Amino acid sequence: MIKVQMSKFHPPVPKADGQAILRLSHELSAGRTDTVGALFASQGARSPLVVWDPCLADLNHPTLRSFLKAAHRERDPSGRILDRWADSAEFAAYSDWMMIVSPADGQIDFRYDHYGREIAAAYGQDMTGRLTSEIGGHIALFFSALYQAVSRRNQIVSSEHEPPKQVFVRVWRRLVVPLYDSQGAFSRLAVINLADNDLRAGLDVLPDAVLVVEPDGKVCFANRPAVELFGPARDLVPGMTLAEFTGLEIDLPKSPADAVLNRMERQVRHLVVRNAMIVALQLSIGATMYRDNPLFIVSARELVQ
Fold this sequence. Notes:
The protein is an alpha+beta fold. It has helices spanning 18-29, 34-41, 62-73, 89-92, 117-123, 137-153, 198-204, 224-230, 242-246, 256-261; strands at 4-5, 13-14, 49-52, 98-104, 109-115, 157-161, 171-180, 186-196, 209-213, 219-222, 266-274, 277-290, 293-302.
């Protein structure tokens, strides 16, 4: 049985000790997902989808299919992919969506040697140099067990899983590729990781600048027009507040949940300097629910004088 820590206020949180990781890893490497499914269900999430040695038809994203084809081309006569591939120009093309993961603590834990820019932006923090155990909860247990299973089974695996609800991503789609040194020993993992978010995709095609803001004022998403409007002076980095990104003091309602309940929407104007000219912006401040989490939605439109 997987040990869990019981909480009075939250669902059971798995305790990611070495034995729990080892047991779950053996189940995953044997192609069984009953325990990991129950683990996610205890947190209100559906069971992850895990497919060993996936074919192109198993992958529903062109970037994943492209990476799988590239990995297959790199296989040596023994079927293994050498670690040096990670230093190639072809591999570098996937850098923004790539994680390089190395074993730590006897493969009980894993370290992120590289954490792609797009992954960090979607997750809300850069995990470069940090450990899977630092993520905590059922997600850390699942990651460590799956990575360990890949190193044991010596086979590519694809997975889809729902993140915790505070992460502004509907589902993560991953392809995990084991890499080997010149002696044929397991070295590390190349993990391409794509965030699937229908709301994010819809906001990106809007003509107005739109920011999705957490209750504590941190920006978890800025669509392309928002990056063009505010980004030239300051890049959006994980953990950045609304004021830090926009350069404006925007008075948000006390609670996004209350704003949703009361259908509250506030209109304000701000003056900004763009290209040495003073420009007026019309801001609309509202809120929405996404995966049961209340979030502020701030949109901005340049007023024509």
